[in-house]
Amino acid sequence: IWNVSHFWYVIPEMHYLSTRPRDLGETREALKASTRLDLTIKYQNHYKDWDLSIRMRNLLDEDLREPSIGNDSITGGAALADDIPMEGFRVIAEFRYFPGK
Q1: Distance between CA atoms of 42 and 93, rounded to whole angstroms?
Q2: Can you tell me the distance from the alpha carbon of 101 to that of 98, in angstroms, rounded to the nearest whole number?
Q3: Which residues contact 46 (CB under 8 A, 6 or more apart)?
Q4: DSSP letter, residue 89
């Protein structure tokens, strides 16, 4: 957490996903390692009855995927060919009000 001023904060996050092997019997290659960068900018003044934050997930809009489960010979179900896509770039804004503060 980086305190930019008395009430402003910048919170960078890095999420590393290592190489993920496939289930036994899978013929596809393991998923390669990937990194997701997130950034939160927050205004928090303890003397006021509100705060604000903006969170940006997958800041670089990386193509992130989770392995799909399934193999005809083992589970009887087919795996998704391109695995399961994770969310792309996304912005979340939050305004909180504290009545009676």
Answers
A1: 10
A2: 6
A3: none
A4: S
pLDDT in tens, 48-97: 999 999 999 999 999 999 888 765 555 555 677 788 899 999 999 999 99
How far is residue 69's CA from residue 25's CA, in Å, rounded to a whole number?
11
Q: 84, 67 in Cβ contact below 8 A?
A: yes
- Phi first, then psi, for residue 87 (nearest 5°) are -60, 145
End-to-end CA distance of the chain: 25
Residue carrying the six token digits 């008395």? 6
* Mean per-residue pLDDT of the chain: 88
Tokens of 13: 């996050």
Would you say 40 and 83 are in contact if contact means Cβ atoms under 8 Å apart? no
Token look-up 């006021």 returns 48
23's tokens? 């289930």
Listed residue (10, 54, 16) closest to 37, CA to CA: 16
